[in-house]
């Protein structure tokens, strides 16, 4: 009998990153459910809103034939995507801040239009699964999952390059586990060999920046070690912040939700999470680029 996926521990790049930064933050973002609604919670912020809207536009192009991708201007598509995060829904407390972020998004998409690079070439889309996933360990009941932004197809040797779009102003940490995890997902969830991996900083560069291809075995061993730590923490219900009872920058904003210092502005598109934004008086709004990640 195959293992029960519903009983497994599901891990992604974002949840693993949460755990490594602060187990308490991992709990609040990935395990905790509001007793009144039965849903998990997510904290929206302007950087997240920007990332969500830009990713929606660019990623939607991969399902279109190459010759159709730029028929409708990307900025027009962005206007539609932005409506989903406008105002409080995107964590914006004033029109000026919202317009600043919106303009950044338009500039990124104008860059892609002018310098499409791989976006104007064939791509592989994993249409058979909404969320790419594989058993990291059936014996331990652990599944690794995640969405890869773009799989650039190389027709000459039937291979692919993984491209992750970045909307932040800073470059990714060289020790990040994102590309190792995406390499594993691409390896196990489709048949073509992975020829390369790259980040595309849409606000900084006209083309993707290639990175060393992570070693599959080394990546799998490293991720498995962390995954077992997560499973143990869940089994023991032990999720302590490394900074102690005062909390850290990663768990404090979510603790504010529990204290009633955040405002619920709706439910996410999947109906699984209550979406909150921090109130101005919480004192936890932080810098504009505190977290540019996208919830996947």
Q: Helical element count? A: 8
C-alpha Rg (nearest Å): 19 Å
| Largest sheet features | 4 strands, mixed
Summarize model confidence as the mean pLDDT. Answer: 92
- CATH class categorisation: Alpha Beta
Tell me the span between the first and last alpha carbons. 29 Å
Supply the helix-strand structural class: alpha/beta
Poorly predicted regions: 286-296
* Strand residue percentage: 15-25%
Structural domains: how many: 1
Q: Determine the CATH topology.
A: Lambda Exonuclease, Chain A
Topology, number of strands:
10
Query: Which bin fits the share of residues in helices?
Result: 25-40%
Biggest sheet: strand arrangement: 5-6-7-8
Q: Tell the overall outline.
A: globular
Taken in chain order, the helices and strands follow as EHHEHHHEEEEHEEHHEE
The CATH architecture assignment turns out to be Alpha-Beta Complex
What do you see in this structure?
- The chain is built from 8 helices and 10 strands.
- 35% of the residues are buried.
- A hairpin with a 4-residue loop joins strand 5 and strand 6.
- It has 296 residues and is an alpha/beta fold.
- The two termini are 29 Å apart.
- Helix 6 packs across helix 7.
- The protein has a single domain, classed as Lambda Exonuclease, Chain A (Alpha-Beta Complex).
- The radius of gyration is 19 Å and the shape is globular.
- The strands form 3 sheets. A 4-stranded mixed beta sheet has the order 5-6-7-8. Strands 1-4-3 form a 3-stranded mixed beta sheet. Strands 2-10-9 form a 3-stranded mixed beta sheet.
């Amino acid at each position: 009998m195959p293992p029960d996926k519903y009983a497994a521990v599901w891990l992604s790049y974002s949840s693993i990153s949460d755990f490594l930064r602060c187990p308490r933050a991992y709990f609040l973002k990935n395990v905790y459910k509001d007793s009144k609604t039965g849903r998990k919670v997510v904290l929206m912020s302007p950087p997240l809103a920007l990332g969500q809207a830009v990713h929606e536009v660019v990623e939607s192009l991969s399902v279109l034939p190459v010759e159709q991708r730029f028929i409708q201007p990307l900025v027009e598509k962005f206007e539609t995507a932005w409506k989903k995060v406008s105002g409080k829904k995107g964590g914006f407390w004033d029109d000026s801040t919202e317009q600043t972020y919106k303009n950044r998004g338009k500039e990124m998409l104008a860059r892609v239009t002018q310098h499409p690079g791989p976006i104007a070439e064939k791509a592989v889309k994993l249409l058979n699964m909404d969320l790419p996933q594989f058993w990291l360990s059936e014996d331990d009941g652990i599944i690794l999952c995640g969405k890869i932004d773009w799989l650039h197809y190389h027709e000459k040797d039937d291979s692919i390059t993984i491209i992750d779009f970045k909307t932040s102003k800073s470059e990714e940490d060289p020790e990040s586990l994102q590309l190792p995890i995406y390499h594993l997902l691409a390896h196990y969830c489709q048949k073509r060999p992975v020829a390369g991996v790259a980040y595309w900083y849409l606000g900084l560069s006209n083309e993707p920046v290639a990175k060393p291809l992570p070693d599959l075995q080394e990546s799998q061993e490293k991720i498995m070690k962390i995954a077992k730590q997560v499973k143990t923490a869940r089994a023991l219900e032990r999720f302590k912040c490394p900074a102690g009872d005062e909390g850290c920058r990663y768990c404090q904003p979510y603790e504010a939700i529990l204290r009633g210092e955040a405002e619920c502005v709706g439910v996410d598109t999947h109906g699984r999470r209550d979406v909150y934004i921090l109130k101005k008086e919480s004192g936890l709004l932080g810098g504009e680029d505190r977290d540019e990640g996208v919830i996947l």
